[in-house]
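Suppose you are handed only these lines of text.
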Amino acid sequence: MTTLTIRRPDDWHLHLRDGEMLKGVLPETARHFARAIIMPNLVPPVVTAKDAAEYRDRIMAAKPDNSDFQPLMTLYLTEDTNVKDLRAAHEIGLITAVKLYPAGATTNSASGVKDFKNVRRQLETMAQIGLPLCIHGEVTDPDVDIFDREAVFIDTILDPLRRDIPGLRVISEHITTKDGVDYIRENKDIAATITTHHLVINRNHILVGGIKPHYYCLPVAKREQHRLALVEAATSGDPHFFLGTDSAPHTDDLKEHACGCAGCFTATNTLSILAEVFEQEGKLGTLEKFTSLNGPAFYKLPANQDTITLTKGDPVTYPAKIDTGAGPVTVFDPLMPLHWRVT
Ligand code: NCD
Ligand code: ZN
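From them, the structure of the protein bound to N-carbamoyl-L-aspartate can be written out as follows.
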């Protein structure tokens, strides 16, 4: 096969930031993707309907000319989130989901949830009105090893929370473990996003031969056996798994730092990488489900009508960095030749 035409993809987990960074990174996503779930972890976070409406306007203003990219807005859940405001934001179609960060789990999560009992009313409302919850599924207990934080979260928080609030539709964001894959397969009303980079790297890529800050993200990449489980899930066609790149730009000075920021920037080359991974598995036929069909089906949105075509040829090169007004951002290096380009 040398060409592949698929419905236009969507990105179900994306960080666009704000200001000069937003202007610099948005074209990288808008080039190929029709829609994206926009993460609300700005500083300060997007917590009210008003914040989301204003952020949406800034994204629309930063959009390249002729792009019909559509940002799907989210609210950042806090223990003080006003239920009426949340309900109203849903009713007018302003927001597509709500994001739950356990306080301290990742970049800009300080305002997140400390005690899950304190967001019960908000979550019950969401179950009632059919508003999906995106969860960053890692515990923050300092006694739990960073490589175990996802598995412990599933057992101690995610599963009890779902039993407590039946009918709540949950997206387990950027899963990184076989435990995550197994949990999604065994349950209903839950789906998972999988990132591009977690299909490519394991923890050795971060640590062997010198520390590689551009491979550091949260949840941190795990052992090879977990990467293999993610590849199997993503390429299986199972409707509960779909693409959320978690493309998370940080300028190089903040990545290459004594206390480097977490996040891999994959917006630029994601589709070439995914085509390569799926082809290596002999599963190009399921790529469209992962990038373009399973996500809208879970979110109860129509799939995109238009298509993109990927063409196979000589290795494609991408810039090592993109220049943004906020500074240079390194593009994720998949460490393998990429042969598929969007034409
Ligand atoms: C994200 C960011 O930089 O905002 N970082 C990351 O490593 N993925 C936050 C997140 O999604 O955890
Ligand atoms: Zn993220």
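What can we learn from it? Residues 15, 41, 106-107, 136, 217-218, 246, 248, 262-263 surround N-carbamoyl-L-aspartate (ligand 1) (CB under 6 Å). The first strand starts at residue 3 and ends at 7.
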